[in-house]
Amino acid sequence: MNTLFTLSLVIQILLFLIVTGVVGQTDKKPNVLIILADDVGTENVPGWGNEIVDMPNIRALQEKGVTFMDAHSTSLCAPSRYMLLSGNFPHRGTLPFGTWDINRKGQSQFYGRQKSIASMMKTGGYRTSMFGKWHIGGGLPGTFDRDKFLSSQDWENGRLLNGPRDHGFDDSFYSVSGIQAAPYAFFRNGKLVGKEDEIEYWEKGEHISLAGNDIEILRSGEGMIHWDSTLYNKKIFRKAEKFLDNHIDNHPDMPWFMYFALGSVHIPHTPPDNYFNGTKVAGKYGDPHLDLLYEMDLIIGSLLKKLEETNQIEDTIIIFTSDNGGLNMNNPNPLLRGYKGSMYEGGHRVPFVMRYDNVLPAGEIRNEHFISLADIYATIGDFIDVTIDEYSAQDSKSFMEYAVSSSANPPRTYLPVYRHQNKKGKHQAAMRYGNYKFIRDYHLKWEALYNLKDDIGEKQNLLSTDFQTYNTLRKKLRNKLRKDGLCPVDRTHTFQLKNGKRSSETVNCSFFETNTESKCYWQPIGEIMCNSFCGRHRKFCKLWESSDAEFPVDFLDK
């Protein structure tokens, strides 16, 4: 056997044993910190293309960890947040393309018996926390009134429904919709922060905050009189800092999990004048968007410094990533086509760095295989040795071995990206299969096929030159939509389950029959056991099924 190959294999096995605890086992599990940026694309950070904004803290994170060059979210905010927290593709949630803000039904995107990554970690003995932007739904404690989100409620006796507190987070300080939509307020474990007589209706437009800062309201709605978007990131950092101090003082023997969801760099772009230490932020780069990218790096630096000062940095798994591609402004993407909202790589390929000292290699790059935000769930589960609930994380594939070694097998070979917006008439789907990527736009009746290994910029449409691959991927996309995704077909025949504890078991899902839709709606187990929507969105599925004949090539069904 080749000596170099043997040595490489031995090193890989040893690293794997260390990770899984067979070697170097300790009594305490690692802490876990997930930092999620908002609207930050690969072009905005070092290592992918940013040459404008200085980001020493992200660079330091890369130097100490593993940088994944082929990581993916969805192309929009809320679906990606559910994807990360649930380990599912967005279609498995309450609505096929995400639950976003406070809504009349009071629902979050979590559906049925699904449990969040925070709930999973609580079963592993973790104290869990969340700071920043929630944005996957929720409800009011009283009667729903869109114009009076806050003033119509009894906050003395009520709290928000279906928020972080209801999905596994012990401690949370958050805004429901980030900085871009009402209510313009923070909530602590679901309770409104502030007094009811401090509620104010904010009109759309520019304002001066009580602190004297220039702020902007994108959509009119209620909030607190002291709302100040320029202070958003600094405020959630201070709350996270207090959580860590409290944890060290009162729970030193327990590991902690923190989901830190930044406001940067979503619009409105209102950077603070200065950072904590007086460092200038607003005006630093002559553009608010770039200034917020700079502040993002400062916040990350503060988090890392806190971990170093409290001697926790070596015992913490740190992940930095983003909810979707970057915005179409300032720094054109030198490599990728498209931006936030696009099916092109620039819409959903995101920065991703993972650090775990003395376990993961330092300063390495992974570009051999692709991963998704949904995979964080199973990966963390492997690192902390916690069994995932059979009703949860159906689409999560662990990339632990790949993080340890670039020679590991691919974590996944298939990845879907869907987008559906009724009001804008956008119905799009993309499927990554190995190095190939297939895109379909159902509204514009347009398709494309790209080989990302040779054409990362998606400039050469192979639709006419690689007909065999094109036709194969079209068939796979429809089959995935039917069997694993949005559009289930009736399943009166027996088949094997593919996920959960009953994987490989032969079953008959009779509740997929056309005449039993009502049964599907109230039987969430159908979605889990049969790995699809259980008929909850048949009306929507007609769009995807009926469109086949309108495209130039028919599917090969056999």
UniProtKB/TrEMBL annotation:
Keywords: Hydrolase, Signal
Transmembrane regions listed in the UniProt entry: none
InterPro entries, alphabetized: Alkaline_phosphatase_core_sf (IPR017850), Sulfatase (IPR050738), Sulfatase_N (IPR000917)
Ranges for domain Sulfatase N-terminal: 30-383
Signal peptide: 1-24
One term of GO molecular function: arylsulfatase activity
Domain of life: Eukaryota
Gene3D superfamilies: 3.30.1120.10, Alkaline Phosphatase, subunit A (3.40.720.10)
Keyword Isomerase tagged: no
Pfam family of the protein (one): Sulfatase
Family statement drawn from the similarity comment of this UniProt entry: Belongs to the sulfatase family.
The name this protein goes by in its record: Sulfatase N-terminal domain-containing protein
Lineage: Eukaryota, Sar, Stramenopiles, Ochrophyta, Bacillariophyta
